[in-house]
Protein: Phospho-sugar mutase
Organism: Galbibacter pacificus
Amino acid sequence: MTSEEILKNAEAWLADFFDTDTRNKVQELINNDPEELKERFYKNLEFGTGGMRGTMGVGTNRINKYTLGKNTQGLSNYIKKSFPDKKHKVVIAYDCRHNSDTLAKIVANVFSANGIKVFLFSGLRPTPELSFAVKHLECQCGIVLTASHNPPEYNGYKVYWQDGGQIVPPQDHEIINEIESLSFEDINFKAIENNIQYIDKDVDEAFINASVENGSFNAQEKDNFSIVFTALHGTSITVLPEVLKRAGYKNVHLVEEQAVPNGDFPTVKSPNPEEPEALAMALKKAAEVNADMVIGTDPDSDRLGIAVRDNEGKMVLLNGNQTMILMTRFLLDKWKKENRINGNQYIASTIVSTPMMKVLARNYQVEYKEALTGFKWIAKMIKDFPMQEFIGGGEESFGYMVGDFVRDKDAVTSSLLACEIAADAKAKGSSFYNDLLKCYEDFGLYREKLISLTKQGISGANEIKQMMVGLRENPIKEIGGSKVQFLEDYQSSMRTNLLTGDKDTLAIPSSNVLIYYTEDGTKIAARPSGTEPKIKFYFSVQGTLDHAKNYDKEIAKLDEKIDRIIKELALN
């Protein structure tokens, strides 16, 4: 976009339709800060992997009442076209971020102004409860105002459809086209308050009961199991302590300093349980009370981080792949013991997650389904295959879903499941940690690592684009001393055998992802983030574990191999 076009976009925001404060801020940018003006107006904020996220502020490339209002006006039009003969209903939730409550009310106002019945949570609630509420209240659509684990200056807008899952093609493109056909002046902000109904305890009760029903497996000796829980200033504090209590856990210790919702996230650099630093206060508390497990959830409570004690009694943080593997094996064991596996079941994960999920499926004789990054694709599987039973599934980015009563990653029910696994193991003289090592003994030792390179702004976006172009046009031939056998390009939907030249079509929707597979089982994926200015590289290597006592030695070998590959690819 040229400088003239950017200026024209900005000047359109000086019209009387926009409020005085917005007009003043835009004029100040025009007068004094051309670079910032460019960043804010060079494009429209786009829907990505997890909805729309961005920094808050004025401009078409920012989260504000007008960009979200336009989204909502377009969505209102789309709902009416899609369901012409039904009473139109939506449900809206929001997290702890600055302006989330205000933006949620603005979104509710626009829906209501368009004659749509709105169920609006009276206070902040977890994202999985919103997903649950869509089906529970028989709505056509759900919205949650959240930026998940992004920094404090961010906010976001996730759209859910009537099945409780996030929108996917072709609906997402149809909705985007509807939005883009509008001008900002088409937004109807004039609320019809009678169309807005505030909700809270009744839906909470239904969600809590469903979480306990789906995540509890009658683990023994819960009185002897101690948990430290941190909400990281987010939404899980509204329901998770009650879920654990009803499931029979009495020794739950809150990290009080992080129990109060706060959009500044004052005690952490990042409210992301993927980051070890985020759980530092919880680990300190665990040492004080001699806890068996630490649980931490992100601000909208869809991601779960845990720490457990190793065989020396030291608290160790587990990654998303590790918790996913043990949770899935536990569920598969339960289904197998109950004679419920008959060939009609499946588990699911994503293309950048551990290959070990496929090994689990094969050993338990269930189908393994693989999707693009993002739980919306796993939710789509459930919708697309209603005659099959979904047992559980997850992704490397600390997300898991137990059954299909929620159609998004669910840190509430998954936290309970993690406690059930650990309490059950302790009652049998084992531990969560030892049960994980047993998985590695039985199915092979896998090690994963993620590297994220942040590239801000227009220049950063161009740099990420060129990195992907280079990886496509000049494929890597050898990684870690092993020849690259396959290259999967999800943008062209093509899998190429680089050793023979043979090509096959990938039966997964198009996406800007590249995955390399070597002859020795090493897997490397490159993917620009759909929600942050980052390019992500996912590494997976594999070996064997003959005995749990050799775990540290064998895992060190795999870590060293990953580090060599990262250095080889000049990503450090």
